[in-house]
Amino acid sequence: PKFVYAFAEANKDMKDLLGGKGANLGEMTRLGLPVPPGFTITTEACLAYLADRDFPAGLSDEVSEQLAALEKSMGKTLGDAADPLLVSVRSGAKFSMPGMMETVLNVGLNDESVHGLVSQSGDERFAFDSYRRLIQMFGKTVLGIDGEHFEDAIDEAKRVKGVTNDLDLDAEDLKQLVEVFKKVVLEHAGRPFPQPPREQMDLAVRAVFDSWNTPRAVIYRRQERIPSDLGTAVNIVAMVFGNLGMDSGTGVAFTRDPASGAQGIYGDYLQNAQGEDVVAGIRNTVPLRDLEQIDKRVYDELLRIMQTLEEHYRDLCDIEFTVERGKLWMLQTRVGKRTAAAAFRIATQLVDQGLIDMNEALNRVTGAQLAQLMFPRFDEKASGRRKIAQGMNASPGAAVGKVVFDSYTAVKWSRSGEKVILVRRETNPDDLNGMIAASGILTSRGGKTSHAAVVARGMGKTCVCGAEELDVNTKERVFRAPHGVTVHEGDVISIDGATGEVFLGEVPVVDSPVVRYFEGELDPEEAGDLVKAVHRVIGHADGVRRMAVRTNADTPEDALRARRFGAQGIGLCRTEHMFLGERRSLVEQLILADTDEERERQLGELLPLQRQDFVELLEAMDGLPVTIRLLDPPLHEFLPDITELSVRVAVAESRGEARENDLRLLQAVHKLHEQNPMLGLRGVRLGVVIPGLFQMQARAILEAAALRIRAGAVPRVEIMVPLVANVQEFETVKQDIIQVAREVREAESTHLEFLIGTMIELPRAALTADQIAEAAEFFSFGTNDLTQTTWGFSRDDVEAAFFSAYLERGIFGISPFESIDRDGVGELVRIAAEKGRAQRSGLKLGVCGEHGGDPDSVHFFNEVGLDYVSCSPFRVPVARLEAGRATL
Ligand code: ADP
Ligand code: MG
Ligand code: MG
């Protein structure tokens, strides 16, 4: 294969082979922008090198060829004693990994060529400053010497001279520093700083290749879900010098504000400096605007180029540039990262500028960004916000509460009604109860795959992790933040899971304007441009999507909110909550009943209560389909806790006051106690085993529908049987329901239409979907249970126990409960959809697990041809957006 490409041979679509930096340097070269000449060594060469620990055959020759061409175009030879060509050796992978990998500048300088640089530039100080920078960078990145040794030497030189600024070191000082640096290299690397220019270059290339596998790069990739087998490209670029005096300099810029999306001039500039000085923060930069005063010609050219780039990439770009004695050079560009709000604003701005169409705008935003915009947020205008630390944004939300340092206190305080923030160095499975009790979680260690982050995201709980500035002392029950801030147990803090910020005290929380818009409280025409942008983009998504979006809702309030958020029906109404609260005792009696009569009496009391629940729900969703699931959880969930009850009975017995009912209850609890309730007596099995239970529910549903019809409404009922594994189970329950329907139709003398279907949440159901579809009129994939039963682990038990270890070690890229496991669970969905449809062509297919609101999963469900996804009310807009994006 060809291992080396000149910039002129490259373009922006070659990122896989040439990395982002190389591909875009090529693109800018082809656009005729002022890019210093150079060439790129491919990622394939990197992978070959990493496999063999050596350059692949042919690479060196290709490099020599390209180097010769570069030398010819510059009219200079690499490291020439009289007039040296110098180059930078720069890493650049497909995905940007800021600060993770290495770059070496000024390659080609040595004891001789530095004098050539002196005579060519006429600036001795500049030449020796460049040389000492090379030895320093080369020593650190290629030879692995601790940077402190060099920094100490600079400090020492400044101390001897009695100055504080690097710029106050003159040519003589720098010459001496070069000698000191060479000694540092000899001492710490055990070899002299290499003089031959080509050897410098080859060693730097190897170092860049190797930097792909440094621990920090590995960790970064894992966090950002960047595959580890891509490798990095290497760019060899002719040096241009921003450190040749005050008419030179270096800077970074964005074509528009990456925080807000606003158009304008955003960037920083530093006079008389080389690239790394800007990021290193050695000296203060000036705002890019000031460049207009410093050098108007360069400034105007830069603005023209930025406009060219925006129009060419049709997107926000960020750039790195250098000015050498009044001449502008472009050193890097890429489509820039941006906040969620900026993403929506920029997408619609670009449509208005005629650069992209609405499909493209929809493509440029994500459901995750929309979800971010919907979280309640800390009031930015609140006075007295006092930020004390910055961590990682592990799980979004704005949480306020009293600081606690252990699980026990978290649970105790939250039981008494306090809001608490659990603060730990890092969390482990023992902290789970505390995490559940807390409003938010803050850790000082660990990244986005740490235990705290994974579990918090799973629970939808606000979490800031890895706030390393914090010193957490759980024994003393305090944590310390920079600037002498000490926070004790019980003090109030506020944490922002979307930004990773930590504030002292209570910061007021406000609803996001995007939610107020979805709620109908903000008119999009009169709202700010963010709401306008969201309105336009989601409207377009609605226009192009194929799948409907329904909601999971058990109450009229949730149903109405979801409807305002755009839900087109209910995909899952759980009925178990209708058996709780004051109805619990009725259920207890039902379970205890040992005669048919007694059972029927209890069911008869539950019936009108259930019916009223359904009347209200059908009213809230009038005209739209409502899928109601019959009772699913094991019965013991409705009975008292076994230990508590045992103790109560034992105490009563010892006093000779045991009540008959309690004794019977305890018996029942023992009888129903299951080793593994998830795989026990639940779902359709209850319907088969407990006479009259499902019939009562069906009757309540159908009588409610009849009442609605009589009121002139349009109820669209779908009765759903959970946890079916085989068609006979379903058929048995279905016959019972049809019998009930006959009775209700007769009694009410109405024409009552409804569907009977099932959940597909067991592998056996998926594999025999053709048989089940003979009897079922719709399938709803219960992907939570299907994930549990396919993997053979129970979510409640395993998430906190080992998921973070699995994520950390790369066994999972993401929790299969968060995003559908396409290869396993997804394959079952695909099989069931195909088999079901082959049996019954009009079979309605939906999904009601939590995956229904997960962007990646929504794309998958679109791919396998489901008719709708159903998700919690707050996820409905996210699902609408992603269902639209999935069709592009
Ligand atoms: P990173 O990926 O960390 O941004 P780069 O390869 O972009 O690393 O290099 C960092 C900085 O070094 C650049 O922003 C630029 O200022 C400077 N630099 C790199 N190559 C050259 C060059 N050929 N001439 C002048 N400066 C350069
Ligand atoms: Mg860069
Ligand atoms: Mg289920």
Automatic annotation (TrEMBL):
Transmembrane segments: none annotated. It is an enzyme of class 2 (transferase). Its cofactor is Mg(2+). Pfam families: PEP-utilizers, PEP-utilizers_C, PPDK_N. Its EC number is 2.7.9.1. PROSITE patterns: PEP_ENZYMES_PHOS_SITE. Keywords: ATP-binding, Kinase, Magnesium, Metal-binding, Nucleotide-binding, Pyruvate, Transferase. One of its GO terms (molecular function) is pyruvate, phosphate dikinase activity. Residues 16-53, 59-284, 292-344 form the Pyruvate phosphate dikinase AMP/ATP-binding domain. It catalyses: pyruvate + phosphate + ATP = phosphoenolpyruvate + AMP + diphosphate + H(+). Residues 418-500 form the PEP-utilising enzyme mobile domain. Residues 542-883 form the PEP-utilising enzyme C-terminal domain. Belongs to the PEP-utilizing enzyme family. This is Pyruvate, phosphate dikinase. The lineage of its organism: Bacteria, Bacillati, Actinomycetota, Actinomycetes, Pseudonocardiales.
